[in-house]
Amino acid sequence: MSHDFQSDIDLIQSIPAVPSILDTMCQLTGMGFGVVARVTSERWIACSTRDEIGFGLKPRDELEVDTTICHEIRQRPEAVVIEHVAEDETYCLHPTPAKYGFQSYISFPLILPDGSFFGTLCAIDPQPRRLKTPEIIGTFKLFAELIASHIDSALKLSTMQRILEEQRTWQRTQRVLQRELTHRMKNTLAMVQAVVTQSLRNASSLDDAAHRATERIQALGRAQDMLTDTNWETADILAIVAAAIAPHRDRGGRFTIDGPSVHLTAQQAMGLALAIHELATNAAKYGALSNEGGHVDIEWTSEDDFRFVWTESGGPAVVAPVQQGFGSRLTQRVVPAYFGGTASLEYHSDGVRYVMHGKLKGGE
């Protein structure tokens, strides 16, 4: 039985995040063409594209699969990153760059949770580009995983539709699941877009923007891992806090954590993870985590309203910044809104103190 490739194209085009993912990855790399491709042993099909260099491929267009590097990635599902074809020992004589006229190339496989290979997320450009940085690699990896996760969810939804086809309630179940999937993707994408936009706006250079954006996206990714384990319903605050501070635990005794086990909604979990990331990053640069004797107390209560407190001590003297950056706006405005509350960020002589009040929607 022949495979229905049109359904694969429709699936990718049904993912609201894909166009913005292609825009974001091209902005971060400076590359002019990005694509999500379906790749099998016999066919290479463009499912969604972004073309600013006149490459000429549109959704549903095909390339001869044997002439693509994606064909090699399907056989050995590992990312391929080429900053400058002419100077790359492996690919300088490879026929594909010459055939399609590119000098820089990055492609990540789309691997579904069951290990099956769907295709690739890739970008090309006729000019050399700086691509082999942790920031670029980390962002592409996260985007590939996000698309693969949604493909898997959509395929499972399709299977469920077939199972429920003869039942009277299948149409209602389908609508509920579709709305939930779209809602999750939109929430995640909105956060990623805000992080990238604000990082670009406030950074001193493109490299600085990419570094800041990737660190923040990785913080989101760690929270997303927790949510995936619970089917995106709730996440335990203990796990969110532990994952958020893990990169900063350079030795024992740096942090004291005190609070009950409570569950956060998906949006609250990702928001709190970002807030803790910003607080910890600033503490590592300027505050209690920037010297050997600094300490951070993290505590929360949920007896009545939810109250979260981050208190630094033992670090160098801190002063309030002259201008409010993205991190301050995030911690004082954006994240508290997810809890229906307020927050304050205080700069005391002995360290920063952050206090947030709000409501728990996820249930304790």
UniProtKB/TrEMBL annotation:
Annotated GO molecular function terms are:
ATP binding; protein histidine kinase activity
Tell me where in this chain the Signal transduction histidine kinase HWE region domain is found. Answer: 180-261
The record's EC number reads 2.7.13.3
Keywords, ordered alphabetically? ATP-binding, Kinase, Nucleotide-binding, Phosphoprotein, Transferase
The organism sits in which domain of life? Bacteria
Q: Where is the GAF domain?
A: 13-161
* One Pfam family it belongs to: GAF
Catalysed reaction(s) here are: ATP + protein L-histidine = ADP + protein N-phospho-L-histidine
* InterPro entries reported for this sequence: GAF (IPR003018), GAF-like_dom_sf (IPR029016), HATPase_C_sf (IPR036890), Sig_transdc_His_kinase_HWE (IPR011102)
Signal sequence, renumbered to the chain: none
Instruction: Please list every transmembrane segment annotated in the UniProt record, as residue ranges.
Output: none
Protein name as it appears in the record = histidine kinase
